[in-house]
């Protein structure tokens, strides 16, 4: 069997960038069982309520829903179990320092296969307040309106 190349997206947390200000991102490997990998290969996972925690110098991914593998037997996995993330010692120590000192959180942004290995992109993030969300939406709307005006000007239409 030929080795897979590239990046195949499995699940994405679309609300993460809306609810959180992303300061830094990290790519981490995920420790999985066989039936979890098979279920992920079918493109079945949800990051909606997921988060990451630091416990005793290890990073854990919690509340990710990977449904049971349909063809699995009694060896099937538990859908919402905690999964260990694989990061370098330096990255873990940096995350421990940042989360302790400034009250930042670890939020998973996406789950994907990279060259056949399951990876998760986690972000060091700060929660947004309502006014921050409103400001971001206003900026996006203004940017979209400017792009429309530029497009109309290029086509020779009046504004």
| Count of separate DSSP helical elements | 4
Strand order of the largest sheet: 1-6-7-2-5-4-3
For this structure, the CATH topology of the largest domain is: Small Protein B, Chain: A
Query: How many domain units?
Result: 2
Structural class: alpha+beta
Q: CATH homologous superfamily of the largest domain?
A: Small protein B
Shape: globular
Distance between the termini: 57 Å
Which stretches of 5+ consecutive residues score pLDDT under 50? Answer: none
Q: Please give the CATH class of the largest domain.
A: Mainly Beta
- Secondary-structure element series: EHEHEEEHEEH
- Largest sheet descriptor: 7 strands, antiparallel
- Residue-averaged pLDDT, rounded? 83
Number of strands: 7
CATH architecture annotation name of the largest domain: Beta Barrel
Helix content: 25-40%
Beta fraction: 25-35%
Q: What is the rounded Rg?
A: 20 Å
InterPro entries: SmpB, SsrA-bd_prot, SsrA-bd_prot_CS
GO molecular function: RNA binding
Organism: Halosaccharopolyspora lacisalsi
Main location: cytoplasm
Features:
159 residues, alpha+beta, Small Protein B, Chain: A, 7-stranded antiparallel β-sheet, 7 strands, 33% helix, 33% strand
Descriptive overview:
This protein is α+β, with helices and mostly antiparallel strands and 159 residues long. It has two domains: 122 residues, Beta Barrel (Small Protein B, Chain: A), CATH 2.40.280; 31 residues. It is 33% helix and 33% strand. The chain contains four helices and seven strands, in the order βαβαβββαββα. It has a seven-stranded antiparallel beta sheet with strand order 1-6-7-2-5-4-3. The longest helix is centred in the last third of the chain and has 26 residues. The radius of gyration is 20 Å and the shape is globular. The model has no long low-confidence stretch (mean pLDDT 83). Keywords: Cytoplasm, RNA-binding. It is found in: Cytoplasm. GO terms for molecular function: RNA binding. Belongs to the SmpB family.
């Amino acid at each position: 069997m030929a080795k897979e190349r590239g990046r195949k997206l499995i699940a994405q947390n679309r609300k993460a960038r809306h609810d959180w200000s992303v300061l830094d991102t990290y790519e981490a490997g995920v420790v999985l069982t066989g039936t979890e990998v098979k279920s992920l290969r079918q493109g079945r996972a949800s990051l909606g309520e997921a988060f990451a925690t630091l416990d005793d110098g290890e990073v854990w991914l919690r509340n990710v829903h990977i449904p049971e593998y349909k063809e699995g037997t009694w060896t099937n996995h538990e859908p919402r179990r905690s999964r260990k993330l694989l990061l370098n010692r330096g990255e873990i120590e940096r995350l421990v320092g940042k989360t302790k000192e400034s009250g930042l959180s670890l939020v998973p942004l996406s789950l994907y296969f990279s060259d056949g290995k399951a990876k998760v992109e986690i972000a060091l993030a700060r929660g947004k307040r309502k006014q921050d969300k409103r400001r971001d939406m206003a900026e996006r709307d203004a940017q979209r309106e400017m792009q429309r005006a530029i497009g109309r000007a290029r086509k020779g239409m009046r504004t």
